[in-house]
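Good morning N.,

You mentioned wanting to compare the apo and holo forms, so I went ahead and generated the holo version with alpha-D-ribofuranose. This is what I fed in:
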Amino acid sequence: MKLIIDTDPGIDDAMAIAYAAAAPEIDLIGLTTVFGNTHVHQSSRNARFLLHMLGLDAPVAEGAACAIGQDTHAPSEHVHGPEGFGDITDIPEIGANHPKSAAEFLVDMARRHKGELVVCAVGPLTNIAQAMQLDPAFATNIKRLVIMGGAVYCPGNITPHAEANIYHDAKAADVIFAAPPETVLVGLDVTLKTLYETADFDALADQSLDMGGFLRDISRFYLKFYKEVGGLEGCGLHDSTAVIACTHEPMFETVETGLQVVTEGPETGATRPIPSRPPVRVCRDVDGAGVVHLFTERVATLP
Ligand code: RIB
Ligand code: CA
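and this is what came out, ligand included:
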């Protein structure tokens, strides 16, 4: 399956990119980057560093530095650290970004791989909305859009109402849900059922010394946040769960509904079911243990 991950790496983003590199079904065409967990130039630097670590020669096309038509919230440094990789800073700049913007790259690849390309968006949806506005055919050229985002039947994480990716650019998300491609939403409704604990990271690092060791090192900061703020003994495999949904949808229970996003006021970023909009497949349940096992089994094969 041809895949582009639109990402704001970010600790769980790094885990998802490592999973994609290890998954035999996935042909990672490239990464597009966006602001969110960190500033977009750091997202791009982190993305290029990860691909170098993974030995992948895929392009990184840099995207939006700020949200569409709303204030851009500060990066989630308290969750992902000052540069997106927890306590690990001063990540080297390796290589250069693709000359085209994220939106242009997405549009071009959707045309080139018409009907085959899956786009997995695991950050704010600004680049996806811009690609849809740049080329009206984008939504039908891609095979499917899989979004890590939303909290449809459960509380949010960045506010009681909103999940972080949607919250960071609520207007972009609402533009997409008004006329969605074939879309699967992988929200907190399922990603908080795929907790990855300290012992899981340690076991992974014992099997994958370089990549697993790096993921263990950057996750310490993230696990501390989840314990101190969320009272959880592990971190959500948010972005990896979305990538796994791209190839293993039978592990998920979905319902079809239109969605609307609150774009102003205290409930900004809330994702609300609305029957009058075209339906998307919202994940309501997941084989959480199965996702955690599949993630470990695949990433453990990396050097
Ligand atoms: O709410 C979780 C999402 O927000 C994940 O994609 C995480 O990386 C952050 O971007
Ligand atoms: Ca992310």
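The first helix runs from residue 11 to 22.

Happy to go through it together on a call whenever suits you.

Best,
F.
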